[in-house]
Design goal:
48% of the residues lie in helices and 16% in strands. The chain is of the alpha+beta class. The strands form 2 sheets. Strands 2, 3, 4, 5, 7 and 8 form a 6-stranded antiparallel β-sheet that branches. It has a two-stranded antiparallel sheet with strand order 1-6. It is built from 7 helices and 8 strands; from the N terminus they run H-H-H-H-H-E-E-E-H-E-E-H-E-E-E. Among the domains are: 33 residues; 78 residues, Roll (Pdz3 Domain).
């Protein structure tokens, strides 16, 4: 009779052991794996946690700095039109301008139809002394054509800005004329 009582509780004991095992396994799985989804979806450091997980566990090599450089402007764009991210390179360029270690040809310009168009000439600047006028188009720099897809703000700044007293030869087309003046 004792054996029948013992056999009757065996399924209950086995079920209880299985339930305890599942609970212990779930606890350790969540605790030691870091429960990645809960880490990402909670707390104020979600972005930092996500980048940490990508850096540690992503299959391929990832340049975290470039991911951050892409993400930050997109995050700031959601705030308002005046919040912008300035990269370290751009901040250095602004700092150089403020220190006066670089200077330009003395124009304000816009890029229209893949061509630099002079908007304004700085009074007593190199461009004014060379006879450049607002409305002129800059079509070459240092004897090389500077029109088309290569014309960007960054490239224009690189070609038109340098240490003070640096010489630069500009090819200019005046409004209503077809001939390039140097």
């Amino acid at each position: 009779m004792n054996t029948k009582k013992q056999n009757r509780f065996m399924p209950l004991i086995m079920a209880l052991c299985v339930i305890v095992g599942i609970l212990i396994g779930t606890f350790y799985a969540n605790h030691f794996s870091g429960n990645r989804l809960n880490i990402i979806n909670s707390g104020s450091n979600r972005l930092s946690n996500l980048l940490h997980i990508i850096n540690d566990q992503y299959v391929d090599k990832v340049d975290i700095d470039s991911l951050v450089d892409i993400a930050i402007p997109q995050i700031l764009a959601d705030l308002d039109p005046h919040s912008v991210y300035i990269t370290a390179k751009d901040a250095q360029a602004v700092a150089d301008d403020l220190k006066g270690s670089f200077s330009g040809v003395g124009i304000e310009f816009t890029i229209r139809q893949d061509t630099i168009r002079v908007q304004n000439v700085v009074k007593n600047g190199p461009a004014q002394r060379a006879g450049i006028l607002a409305g002129d188009k800059i079509v070459s720099v240092d004897g090389k054509p500077f029109v088309g897809k290569i014309v960007t703000n960054e490239e224009a700044m690189r070609r038109l800005k340098g240490p003070k007293d640096t010489k630069v030869k500009l090819g200019v087309v005046r409004y209503g004329q077809k001939k390039v003046k140097y």
